[in-house]
Write a structure and sequence with these properties.
There is one protein chain. The chain folds into two domains: about 1-185, no CATH class; about 195-335, Immunoglobulin-like, CATH 2.60.40. The chain has five helices and 23 strands. It has helices at about 1-25, 50-55, 85-90, 110-115, 290-295, and strands at about 30-35, 40, 70, 75, 80, 105, 125, 130-145, 145-155, 160-170, 180, 185, 195, 210-215, 225-230, 235-245, 245-250, 260, 265-270, 270-275, 285-290, 310-315, 325-335. β9 (about 145-155) and β10 form a beta hairpin. α1 runs parallel beside α4 (about 110-115). It is globular.
């Protein structure tokens, strides 16, 4: 037991030392971690003591549009306020079980929490001769009914315990000295970013459609970019549409869980069948971006240059839904050269 504790204590010391080195080395860049999608995540430390409402007054809540300005003195220009699902994606790289659960706790999650604190500095911490406690918490860009969503991680040793939480917190106007802002930034070199994720209960068939691309588009068509919407209702007519004026997040219609996530004006691609099986979620929509631009040289935003951003979403018939249609999640693409 003693040797086990000594090994665990050594991990704590190493993790804490790594966190301090990371903070010191990256202080000027404010970057804590770069995820598998190339998103550079900002340290929570230095963004605390702001309410959800104060942040929302400066930062767009769509999860892809960079902020311009400062939140009560904190400069956030160029940083994107992350949605709950984006934070979940990132945290799941440290603790995979968080991908499907909102609350995890117990000694089994201590090592993954140490890994997290090897990159992110805690927003609250204390230490004793025999143990310690680290906690990191931040607002996401999601709120409803006066409650904001918060993602938190804690690690405690002696006794040994840890937790990973995604919760609603009452009081969007309340600030905490121990709660920061989950933010990331990206560039044209990163992977396409899915946002505005489908929410339950989904389509009338219970589907939660998603969207992805094989790569970022190329302004010179040097690389292939095929956009695919999957988990779509089978045997329906549908199409892809896109815009060049930014992202938005707004209800599609009163009783639908779909949301419109592309700011108008928008342009439509060719109508197609989703294929698959009627009543199942095995349908799909496809759009070859290079081929679309080749056959539509006068399309909205064309010709595209390196750095130009487009937002894409799928639409399909859904007779049981309001407006007799539903939407997929959305995708942000940034053109490479």
């Amino acid at each position: 037991m003693l040797s086990s504790f000594m090994r665990l204590s050594s991990l704590v010391v190493l993790s804490r030392a790594t966190a301090l080195v990371a903070v010191g080395a990256l202080a000027s860049a404010q970057v804590a971690y770069v995820d598998s999608l190339g998103r550079e995540w900002r340290q929570l430390v230095g963004t605390t003591s702001r309410s959800w409402t104060q942040i929302a007054a400066v930062c767009p809540t769509d999860g892809v549009t960079p902020a311009v300005g400062a939140v009560n003195g904190i400069q956030v220009t160029g940083w994107v306020w992350a949605t709950t699902e984006q934070v979940r994606e990132m945290l799941s790289e440290f603790e995979p079980a968080l991908a499907t659960q909102n609350n995890l706790s117990g000694p089994a999650y201590l090592l993954s929490a140490f890994g997290f604190f090897g990159s992110f500095a805690p927003t609250f911490e204390f230490y004793t001769t025999f143990g310690g406690y680290n906690d990191a918490s931040g607002w996401t860009a999601i709120a409803a009914n006066g409650m904001g969503e918060v993602a938190s991680v804690f690690a405690r040793w002696n006794p040994h315990d840890a937790g990973w939480y995604i919760d609603l917190v009452a009081g969007v106007d309340t600030a905490s000295a121990y709660r920061g802002i989950w933010m990331y930034r990206t560039s044209a070199a990163t992977a396409p970013i899915e946002y505005c994720h489908s929410e339950a209960p989904g389509t009338s068939a219970g589907c939660l459609p998603s969207i992805a691309a094989s790569s970022q588009p190329s302004a010179s068509a040097a690389t292939s970019c095929v956009i695919t919407a999957s988990s779509v209702d089978g045997l329906r007519n549908g199409l892809m549409f896109y815009g060049v004026s930014g992202a938005t997040v707004a209800p599609w219609c009163a009783t639908s869980s779909s949301r419109i996530c592309v700011r108008p004006p928008t342009a439509r691609a060719t109508l197609q069948s989703t294929g698959g099986t009627a009543g199942a979620c095995d349908g799909a929509l496809l759009l070859d971006w290079n081929q679309f631009l080749l056959t539509h040289p006068g399309a909205l935003g064309a010709p595209f240059a390196a750095g130009d951003v487009v937002h894409v979403q799928g639409w399909f018939r859904d007779p049981g839904a309001c407006k007799t249609s539903s939407l997929t999640s959305a995708l942000q693409l940034v053109h490479s050269p």
